[in-house]
Design goal:
13% strand, alpha/beta, 9 helices, single chain, binds zinc ion, two-stranded antiparallel ribbon
């Protein structure tokens, strides 16, 4: 089971269209993957335009959420402090199910977390988001065998697999970030039959994304499709 995804930046520049006229607070309904993606695009468009709407952090909102959560989307992103998904997508409490690791790499704990979000919480969308000037990807690109710990070596090795992309795409960190996003999505699908089944049955949409630090804009890939006949792309 292999998923092909390309985060083609130029071809997928977001033209955000708000699916709801309300702010980012009113998102606790059932959404299709495409509708959830539309909400994220709209929220990011507000962020880019410095027009983010206030999100409620009030006790009333917390009270509403105490009974349970129905997040609109899962976001697997880098731990970089400049890339906070809730701000980037102008989202409030209970709206995003966020998992963050350096270089947004996945392991079994991350996969189990994603499975919980998708299967138990019925979250309709997973966004795997890399970003401009990612230090983890840069370190992986430059590292030889000088990781400072076995844990760091594990992380850098996971990211470094993206270097298996064609040479012309390896020369820019940006393209390494995109290749890493693709790698992470393929790893997640290959490592989790649960997620794969949810994608196959249309219950879960998966997209890759790239965040620009200064503009604040998030560019998205096409929605991932399953294709068991597709060649593996960048798999280690
Ligand atoms: Zn990063």
């Amino acid at each position: 089971m292999t998923v092909r995804v390309r985060v083609a930046v130029a071809a997928t520049m977001v033209c955000a269209t708000a699916l709801v006229t309300a702010g980012a607070n009113e998102t606790n309904g059932a959404y299709t993957p495409q509708a959830a993606l539309g909400l994220l695009k709209a929220g990011n468009d507000r962020f880019v335009r410095n027009a983010s709407v206030p999100v409620s952090l009030s006790v009333n909102r917390r009270q509403e959420l105490a009974a349970g959560q129905r997040p609109v989307a899962m976001v697997l992103s880098c731990a970089d402090s400049r890339v906070p998904p809730e701000h980037v997508f102008n989202a409030g409490l209970g709206e995003l199910f966020v998992i963050r690791t350096a270089g947004e790499v996945v392991d079994k704990s991350i996969l189990a977390t994603l499975e919980y979000g998708a299967e138990q919480l019925n979250t309709p969308l997973l966004v795997v988001m890399g970003h401009e000037s990612c230090g983890a990807v840069t370190a992986a690109a430059k590292a030889k065998d000088d990781a400072t710990s076995t844990n760091m070596a594990y992380l850098l090795k996971a990211i470094r697999t993206a270097r298996q992309q064609p040479r012309e795409e390896r020369e820019e960190i940006k393209y390494l970030v995109l290749a890493n996003v693709e790698q992470v999505i393929n790893d997640a699908m290959a490592g989790s039959p649960v997620l794969q089944l949810l994608v196959d049955t249309g219950r879960l949409g998966v997209v890759g994304a790239y965040y620009e630090l200064v503009s604040g804009r998030v560019m998205f890939s096409e929605m991932v499709r399953s294709d068991s006949s597709a060649p593996r792309s960048g798999r280690r």
